[in-house]
Amino acid sequence: MKFMKLGTRPDTFYTEEATRSVISDIPNDLVLQISNIKYLLHQFSLLPKCGLLRKLCVDSNDSSAVTIELHDIPGGEDAFELCAKYCYGIIINISAHNFVSAFCAAKFLQMTEAVEKGNFILKLEAFFNSCILVGWKDSIITLQTTVKLTEWSENLGIIRRCVDSIVGKILTPPAKVTWSYTYTRIGFNKEQQMVPKDWWTEDISDLDIDLFRCIIIAIKSTHMLPPQLIGEALHVYACRWLPDTTKITRPESSGSQTDEVTDKNRKVLEIIVNTIPSDKGSVSVGFLLRLLSIANYLGASTVTKTELIRRSSLQLEEATVSDLLFPSHSSSNQHYYDIDLVAAVLESFLLLWRRTSPAPTENTQFMRSIRKIGKLIDYYVQAVARDVNLPVSKVLSVAEALPDSARKDHDDLYRAINIYLKVKWKLYVICVTKIKCSSPVQQFNNFQDPMFFMLYLSYHIHAFLSSKHSCVLLLKQKHPDLSKGDKKRLCRNLDCQKLSPEVRAHAVKNERLPLRTVVQVLFFEQEKGSRENGHRIPTQELLLSRGKHIPTVRDELCMLQLGSYEQTTRSAGIPRIPAPSESSTRDDKKMKRPDKKKQLEAEKKGGERRNKGDRGERI
Prior knowledge:
Elements: E1 3-6, E2 13-15, E3 19-22, E4 30-34, E5 37-41, H1 43-46, H2 51-56, E6 66-69, H3 76-88, E7 92-95, H4 99-109, H5 120-132, H6 136-145, H7 150-155, H8 158-170, H9 201-204, H10 209-222, H11 227-241, H12 256-275, H13 285-298, H14 302-314, H15 321-324, H16 339-356, H17 365-384, H18 392-399, H19 411-423, E8 429-434, E9 442-444, H20 450-457, H21 461-464, E10 469-475, H22 484-491, H23 501-507, H24 515-531, H25 539-547, H26 553-572, H27 580-618
Parallel strand pairs: 3-5, 4-6
Antiparallel strand pairs: 1-7, 2-3, 4-5, 8-9, 8-10
Helix pairs in contact: 3-4, 4-5, 6-8, 8-10, 10-12, 12-13, 13-14, 14-16, 16-18, 17-19
């Protein structure tokens, strides 16, 4: 950064009780009031260089001190003090940080060539033209300082000249860029790599949004840079100033400061949206979707949201599942993901697709487009289905929106439904209670707890438990919010004819599916097997296996409890009472024994008759 040094005398200004004075043997005869600070100065130093002060003091006597109020001087007391020190010949340093305030104050005080040759304004203009406008970062810093004095800077042409200088450097071919710039992308090495095309995007992101918009509009008007570069500049600016909604789950508490920040962010968002080039692909669909999520979070205008939905739907084919995963910012929603955002973009895409697509055929671009969207949505549903608080209506809002032609097969849709049904089962809870104690002593709320597997796998659970424990309770319940009707609504979109053999084989064994869906899968599989002599599922056996009782963890634990009970009764000398299943089994065995004897006697009699018949034939 360059600076200009003026003056030769040391700084002799000092402060005493909100009063600024200059160390001098000559008594002060000029009192200037600026805001809350009083300056006690000398007319012989200031009047020769300041035309405004000369006019205000022309009617006063030289012997009396003149008091002047300058509350409206641009830049305030700091800018005035720079001008006053210049008049006294005290050393001052002018740089890009204080040039604007010094220049505006000098203009206000009329420190022109008409008042004195080689005055302050002339030297400031020379520094502005030869140093600030030549430098890349000096131009940006100077432009940013005009925010506090926008009207003065606009009238004096500072903003226009800085913007022209910055735009001219941006349009310079990267091979001719010789000045320093900021570029902090991961993996980039300035010493080993050439200047990137977007070398300028990070530096201009330091600017205020209105100044940033001026530069972007000026660049677009030249038609010399591709829209993708302009879109990258907008992306960098948004990442710098807009909140990251992926790290915010709920809106912050309202307050004056929060409202002010929200209004500022909303303004930044709307300007960025309005500045995006109209060319398709100028920004990525992931960036558009992120802006839409931010718009929902900040409560942006309907026009802004509608434009973002429209732009996102035009490029929805380019999206990935990660581009669609944004948290919900509504305080009324208990689920994590913002499903409404995806549903709105999908609806806009389908409206455009139905309006522009001809008669559907397998090889058209329109069919490939809708098939790609179908895959994307099914993968998205698989991702969000893991949210245990996600209601069925939200899943159906995106799953049912797709037309039948969007899915060549329903394997991915089945996987999404299966994941959703699976997470709707509560995790196992194991409670170990003591005798005559209703409250649990130990509880494991995680199915993956190693203690659970220890209890589940070990057939010697009574060895693990102490003698004071009486029982082990194992509970498994369905989610109360997922009724049979919800299951049917969820599975009615599933076309069993479009399932692969592997998926159908999994579906008929899936206990979480409604029975009607399983029957449909079996019916279509049997119908297909009758037409082809290929892979066929044995329908009767699968139905029997589905209805067959499969021992669960509860059954195993009950067996262990029974074994523990038998051991206790034997040690106490109590006669054992056989279980109903055991008594019925013994009765069956007793009934089978006489049947075997009768069968043997009948076989012997039959043999004797055959022997007698053989003898008769011989005779």
